[in-house]
Amino acid sequence: MYLFLDALDDKFYTNPLWYRLLYMPLIFTLFRFRFYSAWLLAECMCMSAGFGAYPLASKPKPGQGPTDLVALKHAYEQAPNTIVYDFETVHNIDEWKCESALTVKEVLRYWNMSVQYWMATCIYKRIKWRQIAHPVTMFVSAYWHGIHLGYYMGMVTTTPCILAENVMEAGVRRHIPANSRWIRVYDICSWFFRTRMFDYMSIGFILKHFHYTWKYWKSVYFIGHVITLILYIIGIIAIQKRPKGKRKEIVNKDLGIGAQPKASEEQHQRLEKEQQEHKKEL
User: Domain limits of the chain?
Assistant: First the structure.
């Protein structure tokens, strides 16, 4: 814990720039592995207590539980003694995917998965306009963590990161031939950007307070925000070079400008109805 407080001391900022840049990935590695350990132990405790055990045939998902309620009902009715169970419902972290994911959005999908399901179902999918769906969801997530402004600074920064990744994907990666070695180069660069951005954003969660977070980001010249802006501009320029009809498709579909698809809300309502009917049957 002492290491996490180094940046609160003014003497820390007498270190050279390379030291402050290297400090972020090192300290975030220690920080996130604490969560890995805690969540793995929590999953083991839930499994030992029998929490989150559902028939494998019901296709459970983290946080959501069974997704095939018909198969769940049949499993209990037909052969309860031969049921194969799994504990995917209480599976909260996929460490390998968090470490190997190429984008910020992918990491968020596999980090704290039970809460991510709740955020997606109760907040993100209920917001009509996709332009504000993600920042509002991140704001609620920050509030869920606490009231320190550093949480909000870190969480809200994920929105421009994801936007930059989306425009680069739509404007650059998608137009690289699939068999080209440049695809691999792009993916490595994408992974490096994603990992360094999480290092950068984690400062808000580690230092917590606005003053300390701002001071640290300022000491590294807001490098995370600057690189994100540069990538966004490159992606936009690449998109502008596409044919006019293709540009419109990218803006409406790939970049999520417009209303949320109605199917998402309809699927959500159908799932709620099925769950209510199942509860009545039980």
Answer: 3-29+94-260
| Structure tokens that stand for 76 in this block | 């209990």
Distance CA 154, CA 157 (A): 5
Q: 36 is written with which tokens?
A: 């890995």
Helix (H, G, I), strand (E, B), or coil: what is residue 129?
strand
Number of H helices, E strands in the chain: 12, 2
Measured distance CA(216)–CA(211) in Å, rounded:
9
Q: The whole model's pTM is what?
A: 0.80
- Mean pLDDT per block of 10 residues along the chain (282 residues) reads 72 93 93 91 90 86 86 77 85 91 91 88 84 84 86 91 92 86 93 95 92 95 96 91 64 52 51 56 46
CA distance 270 to 279: 14
Cβ atoms within 10 Å, residue 255: 20
Residue type, 269: Q
